[in-house]
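Exercise 3.2. Students should predict the tertiary structure of the chain below and write it as structure tokens, then compare their answer with the key that follows.

Predict this chain's 3D structure.
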Amino acid sequence: MGALLRAFWGIIPVTAIALPYALLCWPLLTVRRRRRSGDVSLGHASATAAVDVSAVTVGVLVLCLVTMPVGSAPVSTLDLVPGADLSAAFSDDGSLWQVIGNVLLLSPLGGLVPLRLRRMRSLTRIALTAFAASVLVEATQFLIHTGRVTSTDDVLLNTIGATLGAALTRRGWRVFDVAPVVSIPRQVRRTVCDAPVRLRVPRSVWDTRYAGVGHPERR
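Answer key:
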């Protein structure tokens, strides 16, 4: 638990500062979407705004967390041996909190992003995107010397966490999809000719064929 607090203690005050701004942006974004699209219901606009604000807030918090220095070490440590950190975490004197923290780091983004981006509605794409983002995060930590450990196990755990988050929200990926409006073509009344057509029936034909229709007694 102490290792987890040492690694994530700095995110607590940042979260306390960012949360009120997120709560303020939520109704403002809802009102803006209602004004831009009047046919969207209030519940739909509020839900999509909540998802977008949550995704942005989580992304900012993750960025602040990975760039925040930890400990008194002036340089970062590079560990490219796969499984070394996991073996140390599962040992007798190891701590699983670091493993849990790496799994949960990108899991919220993995669950929220497919709700709004249709191109990311695939576990394979989520895993590849999380892998690329995790490699970028670990490289940034090593280059700016935050005192953290840059390892391949962190990349693996971050990718697994994002994929698990996407799998948990997979059934609700299409909840916020809006059905496309089908445009019905305007029917144009066509006429054969502009001038009225007059049919002249001879009196003899009218008397023999059609007079009995209007006056049955004349039959």
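Discussion points: The two ends are 109 Å apart (CA to CA). The CA atoms of residues 209 and 219 lie 10 Å apart.
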